[in-house]
Amino acid sequence: MARGPEEIVGWASSGLLVLTIGQQVWKQWKTGTSKGVSRWLFLGQMTASLGFTVYSWLVKNWVFVVTNALMLVNAVVGYGIVLYHRRRERRRVAAEAPA
User: Fold this and answer.
1) Is there a contact between 11 and 63 (Cβ–Cβ < 8 Å)?
2) 99 residues of the chain, pLDDT tens digit each
3) CA–CA gap between residue 45 and residue 40 (Å, rounded)
4) Rounded to two decimals, what is the model's pTM?
5) What is the C-alpha separation between 96 and 50, in angstroms, rounded?
6) For the domain bounded by 5-96, which CATH number is listed?
């Protein structure tokens, strides 16, 4: 797959970035809270990652096609977790409110 040292650096860096962001999304899920996490972070990341994926595909840079596609998946999952946590919190507050 790698054609030279520059691609090895690219793939290694890609793996590190995806794992780092994935770990943050996993931590957000595991802790059960998205407190302080803006949904706009994930919406912006989704938009940028989609654009970068298309661009990378157009210029045929496969390291970045894969990286940005995986970052898009991370953003979608992260956004889904934010929505889940916020919905769960609204239900909890509504259940605790006096009738």
Assistant:
1) yes
2) 557 888 889 889 999 999 998 998 899 899 998 888 888 888 999 999 999 999 999 999 999 999 999 999 999 999 999 999 999 999 999 999 886
3) 8
4) 0.83
5) 40
6) 1.20.1280.290
